[in-house]
Amino acid sequence: MIHSDPIRDRHRVSWRNGVLRHDLRTVATETAVALSYNGSTHAVMMATPLDLTDFAIGFSLNEGLIADMGDIRSIELQQDAKGIDLQIWLVEERSELVRSRRRAMVGPAGCGLCGVESLAAAAPTLPNVCVDGRVAAEDLMTAMDELGSLQILNQRTRAVHAAAWWQPIGGLRAIREDVGRHNALDKLAGAFVRQKNTTAFGVLLLTSRISVELVQKAAMMGAPVIAAVSAPTSLAIEAAQEAGITMVATARADGFDVFCNPQRIVF
Q1: For the segment 7-60, what is each residue's pLDDT rounded down to a tens digit?
Q2: Does 201 fall in a domain?
Q3: Which residues of 235-246 are buried (b: 16+ CB within 10 A; e: fewer)?
Q4: Is residue 249 in some structural domain?
Q5: Would you say the C-alpha torsion 65, 174, 241, 251 has a positive or negative sign?
Q6: C-beta separation of 74 from 66 below 8 A
Q7: In 10 A of CB 192, how many CB atoms?
């Protein structure tokens, strides 16, 4: 049976400062997680076996396979020696949509568009995020600084990404971690909709670079502001501009850069 714990201890031989040691190192668990709809596998992702119900919901929403939680009848987790199968049962109308779009893909932890079948599918028209609200630059810096202390898995392993939802009033509302940055955001999307945060102004905090797939997922969530510790890609900037998302990147101790739609930031 595959381990479902998000972390595991592994033996290692460590050579530091000329000293040889035999000890244990805590590492992040990475396992194959299949997302199956009405009995048929749609995608297989390498992921951390944690918050998998959120993952199932968020992936389904961000992929456009469901419109809301009402499209899901049930979610069942099946586990065997090869991995974990998330059996997602949809209402019949959505089941027909999934059948028409079915694709088989194996996504490594860093992959976000594996299995996309056309150029048009890789660059879809994004919904416009027209959520009103503003955030002070100093508050945004504080939020990014606090994020590290809340990454429980990463503190133990130094090997996972995080996606978090923060609000100027209320602070950090949810955080999800995974070996894959896309998976972490899908998990957060699932938590986001389950906590009914879909109408509140807030900031999506990311511990990775900003690629176009993350902007696409943020647009599906309706996140008006993205803030990340690393840099964006050119296509990510273009997608955020198109969707009306404020993009904050390279957020470090000395400040950050805003690449598009800066009107939501109060300097």
Answers
A1: 999 999 999 999 999 999 999 999 999 999 999 999 999 999 999 999 999 999
A2: yes
A3: ebbbbbeebbbb
A4: yes
A5: negative
A6: no
A7: 27
- DSSP β-bridge partners for residue 69: none
Number of domains in the chain: 1
Is-contact 210 228, C-beta < 8 A?
A: yes
Q: What is the pLDDT of residues 230-245, one digit of tens each?
A: 999 999 999 999 999 9
155-to-6, 27, 177, 178, 252 alpha-carbon distances in Å: 13, 11, 11, 13, 18
Count of H-run helices and E-run strands, the chain: 8, 15
The Cα 1–Cα 123 span in angstroms is: 39
* Residue matched to tokens 């390498």: 46
How many residues comprise the chain? 267
Domain annotation covers residue 247:
yes
Q: Which two tokens stand for residue 243?
A: 């969707």
Helix (H), strand (E) at residue 35: strand 31-37
Residue ranges making up the domain that contains 159: 135-266
Q: Cα dist. 210→18, 58, 108, 206, 235 in Å?
A: 39, 18, 17, 8, 10
- Residue 19 falls inside a structural domain: no
Nearest CA-CA partner of 48 in 217, 176, 230: 176
pTM summary value: 0.91
Residues belonging to the active site: 111
Q: Hey, what are 35's tokens?
A: 């997302």
Residue 226's CATH number: 3.40.140.10
